[in-house]
Amino acid sequence: MNGKTQTSAEAWQGLMAAKEVCQLTGVSRAHWHSLVKEGRAPAPALRWGTRFTRWKSSDVQGWLADPQGWIAAHASDTQEVAA
């Protein structure tokens, strides 16, 4: 394997469940989901059905480091979804 190849186990390590996101951010699950719905927090990277949702940990960390900056940087993404 070369340095660019990522195993499936490594890929899963970069994903976070809602419970983990809420523990890290300090917000409730309901509030986190409302932030996502409003485009003020990262959308899930993976969704299988209604009970399995995961966020990229890098997206959550980026949002946590600068929420307002993240919102400004992703404003065009939110407007495209709303249209």
TrEMBL record:
Pfam families: Phage_AlpA. InterPro entries: AlpA. This is Helix-turn-helix domain-containing protein. It comes from Rhodoferax ferrireducens.
